[in-house]
């Protein structure tokens, strides 16, 4: 992501270099993965870091049931963004929930109209790339299985997001707790101590599992690890509880715990744990939806909206 933003910041040099290769400087990124895993906030964060203006478009708002209107809206937004990009030397147009165009989920009911909207969107992206406008186009979706494959292919970079593994969960939890502390609300040290102890336990268990599978565990192998922990270990705590939670779930849990802490003036481990438990994790809903949508698409062949990638579960040890 860093490289991408650097390239966008030095768009002119980058295009010069690419001219030699006869490749188009296509700055398009598709972010995909479950809700609340940081697709929008990470992009906003990078845009801020590199001081590049960004406009986040709620794509479903562009979609109109009136024939032809969707296409007009898409063109209007991209033309405006291209104009700003030329003026400002760089600009990011972020199509949130891009599956609203060209997926079976979209609220355009006529198949021909979906097709035309998709084609128009693709033409617009191609034109931007061809004209060499310093405009980066981002698309984000949490229904990647339903996204039209032509849209998928138009994006040069694909960045997969997933529920945070236990390393990242620890960092996210600590960062929210530190925010509370900075706001001068008491946080019982036992939360940090328990978290650190549980982290160490999980780490040493992770080493065992690595030895068993014979390879490094990636951030996407968190499911595999917890399956083993649940089967064979006594580890119990916030990291275990939040397996399958998104960053956004942890944020919601923290907010709920704050309501309690307002009364007692200190946030205890017990209060924090209970609040996180109360909000629950998103993974369980996503799994259910994936199962439902894969049943639906296997019953219905040849309809518009292609399946891109099958979500495979973790390998068995
Ligand atoms: N990795 C993370 N680290 C810290 N905070 C996170 C992380 N992921 C998500 N969050 C928190 O969750 C909130 C929501 O995340 P965000 O809206 O970026 O997710 P998203 O992937 O775009 O979700 P959606 O698919 O629903 O649009 C953010 O404001 C942030 O506070
Ligand atoms: Mg988002």
Characteristic key phrases:
13 helices; binds adenosine-5'-triphosphate; two-stranded parallel ribbon; disordered C terminus
What would your notes on this structure say?
It is built from 13 helices and seven strands. The chain is of the alpha/beta class and 317 residues long. It has two domains: 159 residues, P-loop containing nucleotide triphosphate hydrolases (Rossmann fold, 3-Layer(aba) Sandwich); 116 residues, no CATH class. The strands form two sheets. A five-stranded parallel sheet has the order 2-3-4-1-5, sandwiched between helices. The chain has a two-stranded parallel sheet with strand order 6-7. Helix 5 links the parallel strand 3 and strand 4. Helix 7 runs parallel beside helix 11 and helix 11 crosses helix 12. Bound molecules: adenosine-5'-triphosphate and magnesium ion. The site of magnesium ion (MG) has 4 residues, from helix 3.
How would you summarize this macromolecular structure in one to three sentences?
By secondary structure, the chain is an alpha/beta fold. The C terminus is likely disordered.
Helix content: 55-70%
| Spatial ordering of strands, largest sheet | 2-3-4-1-5
Number of helices: 13
Count of domains: 2
Identify the CATH class of the largest domain.
Alpha Beta
The total count of strands amounts to: 7
Distance between the termini: 32 Å
Uncertain runs: 296-317
